[in-house]
Amino acid sequence: MSSFLEIRHLDKSFGDVQVLTDLTLDLAEGEILALLGLSGSGKTTALRLLAGFETPDAGEILVDGEDVTGLAPARRGFGMVFQHYALFPHMSVFDNVAFGLRAQGRKAGLGERVDEMLELADLAGYGGRKVSEISGGQQQRVALARALAPEPRVLLLDEPLSNLDPALRERTRRELVAAVRKIGITTVLVTHEQEEAFHVGDRVAVLHGGRLEQVGTPADLYQSPRTRFVANFVGRSSTLRGFVDEVSGGDEVWVALGQVQDIAVSWSGVPAEPLEEDQRVEIVVKPESLRLATSETGGALPARVVENRFTGPLTYCIVRLMGGEEIQVLADDTRPAPHADVFVAPRPGGPKPRIFRLEDDAE
Question: Are 146 and 104 in contact (CB under 8 A)?
Fold first, then answer.
């Protein structure tokens, strides 16, 4: 599909602090992209550059082939939902939604358009109410309806659900996604919540230290992380160190992880970069890639249970290996008590760990 929103080589610094470096992304028309990262990763700065609230030091922003980098926010044709909604408390729900239309000088069909947006946001009949008389989730939907009413070319969402409690956040998220997909508008969402990014985004772009680490579908990021940061950041994971024992055709590597009765125990994984034998590496493994074993057979490492973490549908067993490393294992029906001696082994058929070169200065 051809690109509709193009972000090309954006740089931004504040004083001596480089906040964003060479950000390049392309979105197809109607695509939803989630910008995911920790605080300070550059995701909010990227959104502010798109909105026109900040000016890039370098780079371009194009919409449907038009360069909008130098345009004022009001001339870009973007809609935005802010983290705190920025609704007008002295206005009714109707007048809040109509605000952008009136700013455009639109009179004909204004009422019909507002009613259409309220219907889309599941707020039919709420037009006459004051903003203070509706719930937080309803206020979020008013903000969305207001952003969509002027028919923007691109929708920007700045952590729009962060002020809601968990139960309301999940329900409102479903409603938001349904409304955005019904309109079919190209959308950029900023969030630090992985679950939110994975639910909302067709693709997810992970930012770290102002740089784009990886962009792809949620499944791509989880199953095939390209960098050590993404492998550790997305989902639960544990990290072990060892050295390359054997390289098998380039698509699988065996890593020696420890010593059991003076015999190296090796686990296989997928290399994220070319590796050679005896290369020092880190192996990043997900809890569902591991199992608790009853003996040393099958590449098992001896360990001792530290604790069990019950999360509702799943329980994670935290174990400490002989070398002192703590790793998470997805527990099956058997959940050994703390301080029990166990063995940890690869789970047959489980996802392969990812393997990364260990830098010489990494200790």
Answer: no
